[in-house]
Specification:
Layout lengths: L5 H8 L7 H5 L4 H24 L2 E5 L17 E5 L2 E5 L10 E5 L4 E4 L3 E2 L12 E5 L2 E5 L2 E2 L10 E2 L2 E6 L4 E7 L8 E5 L2 E5 L11 E10 L4 E11 L9 E4 L4 E11 L2 E13 L6 E5 L1 E3 L14 E3 L2 E6 L2 E3 L8 E4 L9 E3 L6 E6 L8 E5 L18 E5 L2 E5 L6 H5 L10 E6 L8
Parallel strand pairs: 6-12, 21-28
Antiparallel strand pairs: 1-31, 2-3, 3-4, 4-5, 7-8, 8-11, 9-10, 11-12, 13-14, 14-15, 15-16, 17-18, 18-19, 19-20, 19-25, 22-23, 23-27, 24-26, 27-28, 29-30, 30-31
Helix pairs in contact: 1-3
């Protein structure tokens, strides 16, 4: 192999996975390390530029996996990516789930994890818990146990914080949040966890922001939650919003839903929360939204995924007539469809929506981009709601979902299952216009 020209070796190594195969190949020798680094940067640059333009392709992983080991159909699960595996917890179909699965993104194989319960602690069955990756830990907060009317028991919203240590395959209960939450978001800023948003089944939302740290006590073999702040944020209360850490001190909030009376309201706004060095104080600033596409009004923004300087959303577009001085919200009916003034876009497949956030810190603005690629993209399946999206190297994976969102409000046991898991990759060259 040392006799091969660098150009030939580059073409061979570019077929390796960005996730971990290139890293392993780089350990062979200095020459390989240099070429692997070049391949890695080239692959990521292509991924960034092509996804921002909307040049992507979908691939179903369902037919490639061992179905006997795959999780059952579900929506509202929490997913993180670590060391070429997706870790998927909870969700709901006819019942709430408490199982934990791993999915190898290289071999497309499933494994149900039989975890150790530390002092008997294990998460309860939950849908819509918020999860984030912190070092080698999957941190899970809140969630809900939704019961049907036939059970004659009220639904429950959780306030517990659980930590699954991936390396040791052990669950810990770190403590309790100040308030019970579901349909919220969890982000990591440095060594601090940030929780925002809340929905309760008594039709309320709140605007409280909670920051905490996790501390591992090696002597007692426990993980504890250390509170930093718990404070009200001067923005409209919300749930099911998009939230992403821009760096170690700035958090971007976009959209979401708010309850007014017995009506669900869709928010169309954006904010930056800037924290002090100690994270004990913060400032909130509004963000301008430019080039807003009316098809984005009913976008499920809670399932967005960041790819460098843009955010990708995958959903079915629904148009609402655009008017001057359009308010920053629209009311949702209980079947999650548009108001009577709305016209439904005919294609029911996943479309790509791209939000440019490259100028959010410098100019306090975000811009919706019109994808140049096919929309819906190549091989895109029929769209679902309440799916889970996570980035893995130079790919994005979409898991689960439910096609008829009206079923969520009726709390029936019948759901419309999409295919289970999809891989989204960048198309390396734009299709010809011929």
């Amino acid at each position: 192999m040392d006799l091969l020209p660098d150009e030939v070796l580059f073409k061979v190594l570019r077929h390796l996975s960005v996730v971990n195969e290139l890293e392993e190949a780089s350990k062979v020798c200095k020459k390989w390390r240099s070429i692997c680094k070049e391949v890695f940067l080239k692959r990521l640059t292509t991924f960034y530029t092509q996804t921002k333009k909307g040049y992507i392709s979908w691939r179903s992983c369902t037919k490639s996996v061992q179905c006997s080991k795959a999780p059952s159909v579900r929506y509202g699960s929490s997913v993180v990516f670590y060391d070429h595996h997706l870790y998927i917890f909870g969700g709901r179909c006819s019942n709430n789930f408490v199982d934990l699965f791993s999915f190898d993104v290289l071999t497309f194989s499933w494994e149900r994890l039989s975890t150790s319960k530390h002092f008997g602690h294990h998460p309860l069955p939950a849908e819509w818990p918020a999860a984030a990756l912190y070092r080698d830990n999957m941190v899970i907060t809140g969630g809900a146990l939704q019961r049907s009317p036939r059970q004659h028991k009220p639904s429950i919203v959780y306030e517990a914080v659980y930590v699954y240590n991936i390396s040791r395959n052990v669950w810990y209960k770190a403590g309790l949040m100040r308030s019970a939450r579901t349909q919220h978001q969890l982000s990591v800023l440095g060594d601090v966890m940030v929780v925002l948003g809340c929905f309760n089944f008594n039709m309320t939302t709140n605007e409280s922001l909670e920051l905490f740290r996790l501390a591992y006590q090696s002597e007692a073999d426990t993980v504890t939650k250390e509170d930093v702040i718990f404070q009200t944020v001067d923005i409209p209360s919300r749930c099911a919003h998009f939230q992403v850490a821009l760096d170690d001190r700035h958090l971007l909030i976009y959209g979401g839903r708010k309850v007014i009376g017995q009506e669900m309201m869709l928010l169309v706004d954006a904010w930056i929360i800037s924290f002090s060095v100690s994270y004990e104080s913060f400032e909130v600033s509004p963000v301008d939204i430019e080039n807003f596409n009316p098809r984005c009004y009913l976008l499920d923004v809670s399932t967005g995924v960041r790819v460098k300087n843009c955010v990708l959303f995958f959903d079915k577009p629904i148009c609402i007539q655009h008017k001057e001085n359009q308010p920053s919200f629209v009311f949702l009916q209980q079947n999650d469809q548009a108001p009577t003034t709305a016209s439904v876009y005919k294609k029911d497949y996943y479309h790509t929506f791209v939000l440019d956030i490259s100028e959010v810190l410098t100019k306090h603005k975000v811009t919706w981009l019109e994808p140049k690629g096919d929309n819906p993209p190549r091989y895109a399946p029929k769209a679902a709601k309440r799916h889970s999206v996570v980035r893995a190297g130079d790919s994005v994976f979409v898991f689960g979902g439910v096609r008829d969102v009206g079923e969520l409000f009726k709390r029936t046991s019948k759901v419309s299952p999409p295919e289970q898991i999809f891989k989204i990759s960048a198309v390396r060259s734009a299709p010809s216009s011929s």
